Amino acid sequence: MSAPQYFAQLNDDNIVINVAVVTRLFMEENPERYPGTWIETFVNLPNKTYAGIGYTWNGTDFVAPTVDNS
Amino acid sequence: MTTPFPFVANTVLTAAQLNAITTLPISAQTANYTLVVGDVGKRVQMTSASNTTITVNTGIFSQGDTIWIQNLGSGTCTITSGTCTVSTASSLALAPYGGGTLIFQSSSAATFFSQQAATYGAATGGTSSSITVSSVNYTLLAFTSDANLVVSKAGLFDVLLVAGGGGSSNGSSPNYSGGGGAGGVIQATIYLAAATYAVSLGAGGAASSPTGGNGLGTQIGNVIGAAGGGRGPGAVTDAGAPNSGGSGAGARGTTYLTGAPVIAGTSQGNAGGNGGPNAGGGGGQSAAGGVGTGVVGGNGGAGLSLSAFTGATIVTSVGGGGGGTGVTNGTGGSGGGGNAGATGANGTANTGGGAGGGTSTGGSGGSGVAYIRFKV
């Protein structure tokens, strides 16, 4: 079993609204299932952040949302 | 013509009513239904486009009582043992236009005599293999990423769906971080018409602060789905709000479990362990998360062995909860749960395992998986 690939879907503000477990090939073959902008995200790649819903894509990496705990 | 039933003393029936006695009265149902004593001697007809259940409880019926059950809807109607035991030599899952006779041997035991042979369909998709389980041969389709399920022959399919596990957060003394909950698991026999179905796997929740991310759901089209595992909180400021998790995340006294959105009343996991004051472990598919004590973080709840579904040749397990942090960190549950540590271990991919809590950095939940099998 090969390691799965992950892609994060962005809204117009570059906020992650979904994360899919899918190969790039399958996405390209089924564009109707993956509309909009998708950026690959990695679970175990150094210096790369695995995206979650609400994260922001800054053009290089995903950034976790900040939460005010005060 | 409807014949009054049950008969009442001193009632005079017309000839038409007497002739109509050959046509059993109908108890029409359109949603999940629990049999009542008034259904004895009737045809319970289910008409629903969704999957439904007919539940049988004890203490209602008597020896010899008989109920006819017919599924006229396009969804699968499953006769379910509530508190009453229901036995059959066939299947309790009724495909469209399937039916049979339910006869009670006592108030607590009944036998269903199916008038349909359990007919399995055929399909392609994912990674196909041949398996044998309890001397029955199946084709097993394993989906480890999004793909299409192409049903070439309509019929029954056994499905086992595992959603993504919950992610975890960071937290050290005194605000230890809990383990992520395992992704929900749904196992069912469903009827699928010949068509192409989108199989979508749930991603694991991301590591984040002050709380990890929820796991995402795994589903087959709009037919059936499993809910993602609960997120692991990292600090007392996060009370661990209820979420759609299949299993609850370990936390400081938080235990959350949400039932399936598709099959009402079906549990998809277990609660996370309480904190006390070390963090609790995430809930697993077979057990709740361990409680965090004063000296150790709770272990993740144990996952579910798949050997009864996938066969002895593909022994694996899914749905382990993540461990909680503590003076001594908790370990992940079997089935892909991550250990707690300075950096919480990720849940294993394609198990729906929850992430282990981290004292410095949380981990991500394991992605989900889908198994579909049919008899050959």
Number of strands of chain B: 24
Q: How much helical structure, as a percent, in the residues of chain B? A: under 10%
Report the average pLDDT across residues of chain B: 83
Strands in their spatial order, largest beta sheet of chain A: 2-1-3
Uncertain runs of chain A are none
What's the average pLDDT of chain A?
Answer: 91
Pick out the low-confidence regions of chain B: 235-245, 252-266
What structural category characterises the helix and strand content of chain B? mainly beta
Number of DSSP helical runs of chain A: 1
What does this protein structure show overall?
The complex is a heterodimer of chains A (70) and B (376). With 70 residues, chain A is mainly beta. Chain A has one domain (6-63). Helices cover 9% and strands 29% of the residues of chain A. Chain A has one helix and five strands, in the order ββαβββ. In chain A, the strands form two sheets. Chain A has a three-stranded antiparallel sheet with strand order 2-1-3, with no helix packed on it. The model of chain A has no long low-confidence stretch (mean pLDDT 91). By secondary structure, chain B is mostly beta strands. Chain B has two domains: 15-114, Jelly Rolls (Sandwich), CATH 2.60.120; 119-376, no CATH class. Helix content of chain B is 2%, strand content 31%. Chain B has helices spanning 15-19, 307-310; strands spanning 26-29, 33-34, 43-46, 52-56, 66-71, 77-81, 85-87, 93-94, 99-106, 109-114, 122-124, 127-133, 136-143, 147-153, 155-162, 185-192, 196-200, 218-220, 224-226, 304-305, 317-318, 341-343, 358-361, 369-375. In chain B, the strands form six sheets. Chain B has a six-stranded mixed sheet, with no helix packed on it. Chain B has a five-stranded antiparallel sheet with strand order 11-14-17-18-19, with no helix packed on it. A five-stranded antiparallel sheet of chain B has the order 12-13-24-15-16. The two termini of chain B are 45 Å apart. Classes of the chains: A mainly beta (70), B mainly beta (376). At the A-B interface, strand 2 of A face loops of B.
